[in-house]
Specification:
alpha+beta; L,D-transpeptidase catalytic domain-like; 3 domains; four-stranded mixed sheet; 8 helices; globular
Length: about 500
C-alpha cells in the first residue's frame, strides 16, 4: 500500500505546465492585452477601413474627424489606457466593454485620442496630473449590442488558490452591490512554493484545446488517433506512466492535461486550467490524492503552476465557457453574504455527457450529451458516456493562519499565510469580493492595472459572515457544554486562528 502511494506521488509530481508561444504579452496585443479582444474594433472603424484601403491597420488619421462634444463607448471587451499617445507609453488603467468615454479633443495622434479620467463617477486611474490616451478604433458612438455582451460575459470563473476551490458563476449585473448566481463549485489542485506556485490575477480565456499535449511532449494527449487507447477506467495511477501507454520515448505521463485545457491571457506564465488523469467514472480520485497525508508528508503531488481539476468538471465548464470568459485567480478568505444561502438548494444537480474522439488537439467537440446527439456523432466515435453530479451549493472554507492547506482538507490556506498577510474576502454565494487585494506574498500575473473587473467588486461596506471556526466551536463546547446555535461568525468576531476580520 505504502509503495503504491509513493509511486502515485512520484507520478503526479511530474504533472506540470510547459512553455509555449501562445502566452502572449501585452506588447503582442498592445491595445487590449488579449489576442481575441485585439480584433474587436468598432463598426465605425471597420467601415472607414474598408472604404479606405480594406486594411484594418491602415493609418486613417487624415480621414478622421471625431466629435469631442459627444460620448463614446468602449466596443471591445477590454481596452488599455496609456499615459501617452503611443504603444511605448506605460499602461496606467483599463476600460471595459460599454464604458462611457469623453474625449478631451477630437485630435487623433498615432491612432490614439485623449480622454477624461473620470466619467460617470468611475476613475480610470488614481494617478494625478497625467494625461490619458486610448486607441480610437475601439471606440463607438453606440454601445456594443446587448447580445454580444451577453455572449461574452454570461459566465465568469473565480479560482480561490487559498482554498483550492473553483467556482463558476452566472453574471447577473455589471455594477457592484450585485449578487451573481453560483453554477458550480468544485475542487482544484494548484502549485505550492517557488517556481511551481500558481499565480493570482485577472485573466480571460484565450483558447480551448481538447486533449491538449504540451509543447515539450512530456505529457502526450489523453486521446489521439495515432496513439494507443489510455488505461481503462479504474486503472491504478501508475499505469498512466507505463511505457505501454506512452506513444514515444521521452514521454513521462499519459493524458496529464485531461480532456480539455483552457489557455488564458495575458501574462499567465503558461499556467492553464485543465483536466487530469483518469476517466469520468474515476470522478475526483486524481484530485483527492493531492490532499493525502502521506502524499504531502514526502512529496508535493499537486500542480506545477497550472490549475488542475477532474475531467467531468472541466468538460462541464467547457460546455459553458467560451473564449473571452473572465477567470479571476485570487487568494482570499471566504465568507457569506447570506449565511442562510436561501436562494440555493443543497441537492446535487446532474449533467449528462458523452466524451467523443472528435477534435483532438483542436478546439474540439464539446461533451454535453444533447450537444453530441444533436450533431449526429456516431457511437464508434464515443469514448465514454456518464452523468456528472455537479455541486451548485456554496460552502465557504475556513482560513487557519500559518498552516499549509494542502496537508489538511479543512484549512483554506494552501500557502500557509497569516491573517496579517490577507486583505478582503470572497463572498462565495454572491461571486464578489469585498475590499480585496492580492497578498504581497503571492505572485501575480494577468492584467497589471486591474485586480478585478467591476462586476466582481462588492461595496467596501458590504456586510458578510465568516464560516464557523472549528477551534472556537471546540472552545465553546468546553466552556458551555453545548455548541453555538448559529452556523457562522458575526462580521466583527475576532479569533487569532481563523475568524479575524481586523486586517481586512
Amino acid at each position: 500500500m505504502f509503495k503504491n502511494i509513493i509511486y502515485v506521488c512520484i507520478t503526479v509530481l511530474f504533472l506540470g505546465c510547459s512553455k509555449e508561444n501562445s502566452d502572449k504579452l501585452p506588447e503582442d496585443n498592445p491595445h487590449t492585452s488579449h489576442p481575441k479582444f485585439e480584433t474587436e474594433v468598432s463598426p465605425e472603424f471597420q467601415a472607414r477601413a474598408l472604404s479606405a484601403t480594406e486594411d484594418l491597420d491602415a493609418d486613417l488619421t487624415p480621414k478622421l474627424e471625431l466629435d469631442s462634444s459627444i460620448d463614446y463607448y468602449v466596443y471591445a471587451s477590454r481596452l488599455n489606457v496609456r499615459s501617452g499617445p503611443s504603444i511605448d507609453d506605460p499602461i496606467v488603467g483599463a476600460l471595459n466593454i460599454n464604458n462611457k468615454v469623453q474625449l478631451i479633443s477630437g485630435e487623433v495622434i498615432n491612432g490614439y485620442v485623449e480622454i477624461e479620467n473620470n466619467k460617470s463617477g468611475r476613475k480610470i486611474t488614481d494617478q494625478d496630473n497625467i494625461r490619458l490616451y486610448t486607441a480610437f478604433k475601439y471606440l463607438s458612438e453606440k454601445k456594443n449590442p446587448a447580445e454580444l455582451t451577453k455572449k461574452a460575459f454570461k459566465y465568469f470563473m473565480i479560482q480561490n488558490l487559498a482554498t483550492e476551490k473553483m467556482r463558476l458563476y452566472e453574471k447577473k449585473c455589471s455594477a457592484n452591490n450585485c449578487s451573481h448566481k453560483l453554477i458550480l463549485e468544485t475542487d482544484i489542485a494548484v502549485g505550492e512554493g517557488g517556481e511551481t506556485e500558481t499565480i493570482a490575477g485577472y485573466f480571460h480565456i484565450s483558447e480551448w484545446i481538447k486533449f491538449y499535449q504540451d509543447g515539450a511532449g512530456l505529457y502526450p494527449s489523453w486521446y489521439h488517433p495515432d496513439y494507443n487507447m489510455p488505461p481503462k477506467p479504474g486503472a491504478s495511477v501508475r499505469k498512466w506512466a507505463k511505457n505501454s501507454y506512452l506513444p514515444y520515448k521521452g514521454a513521462q505521463v499519459r493524458g496529464a492535461f485531461g480532456w480539455y485545457t483552457a489557455k488564458v491571457a495575458p501574462n499567465a506564465r503558461y499556467q492553464w486550467t485543465h483536466g487530469t488523469l483518469g476517466w469520468g467514472s474515476d470522478k475526483k480520485e486524481y484530485i483527492d490524492v493531492t490532499r493525502g497525508f502521506w502524499a504531502n508528508l514526502f512529496f508535493d503531488p499537486r500542480s506545477h503552476g497550472c490549475t488542475r481539476t477532474d475531467n467531468e468538471s472541466i468538460a462541464f465548464i467547457r460546455e459553458l465557457l467560451e473564449v473571452g470568459t473572465p477567470i479571476l485567480k485570487v487568494y482570499a478568505k471566504e465568507a457569506y453574504q447570506d449565511p442562510s444561502r436561501s436562494k440555493y438548494r443543497e441537492s446535487m444537480q446532474t449533467w449528462d455527457y458523452i466524451l467523443t474522439k472528435n477534435g483532438s488537439r483542436t478546439n474540439g467537440q464539446k461533451s454535453g450529451r444533447e450537444t453530441v446527439l444533436s450533431q449526429g456523432t456516431r457511437k464508434n466515435r464515443w469514448l465514454e458516456e456518464g452523468t456528472y453530479e455537479l455541486d451548485a451549493y456554496p460552502n465557504a472554507k475556513v482560513f487557519l493562519k500559518g498552516s499549509g492547506g494542502a496537508k489538511s482538507s479543512t484549512n483554506g490556506n494552501v500557502y500557509g499565510l497569516n491573517h496579517s498577510d490577507m486583505r478582503g474576502v470572497l463572498l462565495v454565494d454572491a461571486g464578489t469580493l469585498v475590499d480585496y487585494k492580492h497578498p504581497y506574498k503571492v505572485s501575480v500575473g494577468g492584467y497589471k492595472h486591474e485586480i478585478l473587473p467591476s462586476f466582481a467588486k462588492a461595496s467596501i461596506n458590504t456586510e458578510f459572515f465568516m464560516p464557523d471556526c472549528p477551534v472556537q466551536a471546540q472552545r465553546d463546547r468546553a466552556t458551555s457544554g453545548r455548541p453555538r446555535d448559529r452556523g457562522y461568525d458575526r462580521p466583527k468576531t475576532k479569533n487569532t486562528r481563523c475568524s479575524e476580520r481586523k486586517p481586512i
